[in-house]
Amino acid sequence: MRKQIGATVLAMAMACSLMAGCSSGSGVTTAAAATEAAKEESKEEAKEESKEEAKDEAKDEAKDTSAEAENTGSEEGSGKKYVIGLAMNTQTNPFFVDVKDGVQKAADEHGIELYITDAQDDPTIQMKDVENLITKKPDAIIIDTCDSDAIVSSIEACNEAGIPVFTMDREANGGEVISHIGYDAIKSGRMAGQYLVDTLGGKGKIVEIQGIMGTNVAQNRSQGFNEVMKDNPDMEIVACQVADFDRAKGMSVMENILQANPEIDGLYAANDEMLLGALEAMEAAGRTDEIVKIGCDAIDDTLDAMKAGKVDATIAEPPFFLGKAILNTAYDYLEGKQVEPYVILDNQLVTQDTVDSLVTKE
């Protein structure tokens, strides 16, 4: 339509210029000017048409790109629907609740169905849980062990059934495990010990509260902590008690320790649950301010206590990301990808100065 209008204008301009030429001596110049004007108009119209065509092409390309992105997303992975068993050691400890939430988040992202069990921190129950999971014939089983030795026979049963096994946080002392993911427990203990050394100037009376000593995590955290204590002879451990990673037991143990020790400068609890229980005992005894306190895990309740000035520090081992990592590893294995047999996630010291910047979950 624009081309037709342009041609009409050009014809009219030429006619006018011819008529003017008959009545004036400048006819040639006028006609040439009219012709140039018509050409310029035609160029502008061509530019407009080119812009319109470019817009249409851009829209088409955008549609193609969107469709390609959708296709790419749908082609990620084989599309197979997997079923994975998750044998949790407990679901009453907030740390392991967050672990389970991380596993669930990753499972939802991959469209994986989970069978979840809770052993209530009882190795015997966990053995039965794994037996039941085997009967469901899942594509894989993930285990967070109650006891590193007791779980071996259950892992061997999975091996015999041809079900790949993955462990997290606490290692197993036997059986064939495709991949284990956890944090460096010895490093955590060392970091906690060094924090007390630095804060107390290398001298003080120290209390250690240990976790479930049948697990490698409790053993290794204690090992790392005591290595630092031995390197600093003026750091005297006046009490060392087991509280099984439990808040109520942590409170009870600390009550007894406070009664027996009128002077305590520092406390290391091998997890935050025991630390929070010990904190209750210290508050009841009116001795909170005199003791430097550090735990491990960086669960929400501890972070809140740090922000309130009640706890000095903890070692961050975010459980949510641990859960996501083990599920993603199991998925990659089932998809035929190579996975690392042993993966150590990064942990870090968190103090009251850095607590606000810590990210522990999505």
Assign the structural class, choosing from mainly alpha, mainly beta, alpha/beta, alpha+beta, or little secondary structure: alpha/beta
Beta percentage is: 15-25%
Order of helices and strands: HHEHEHEHEEHEHEHEHEHEHEE
Largest sheet: 6 strands, parallel
Oligomer: single chain
Helix content: 40-55%
Beta-strand segment tally: 12
Low-confidence stretches: 1-44, 46-75
Euclidean distance between termini CA atoms = 58 Å
**What characteristic shape results from the CA principal axes?**
elongated
Over the alpha carbons, how many angstroms does the gyration radius reach?
Answer: 36 Å
Order of neighbouring strands in the sheet with most strands: 2-1-3-4-5-11
Could you explain the architecture of this structure?
The chain starts with a helix and ends in an 11-residue tail after the last strand. The chain has helices at 2-23, 27-75, 94-110, 123-135, 152-161, 185-200, 216-230, 247-260, 272-285, 300-307, 319-334; strands at 83-88, 113-118, 140-143, 165-168, 179-183, 204-210, 235-242, 266-269, 292-297, 313-316, 342-345, 348-351. The chain is elongated. Helix content is 54%, strand content 17%. Helix 1 packs antiparallel against helix 2, helix 4 packs parallel to helix 5 (152-161) and helix 8 (247-260) crosses helix 9. With 362 residues, it is α/β, with parallel strands linked by helices. The relative contact order is 0.11.
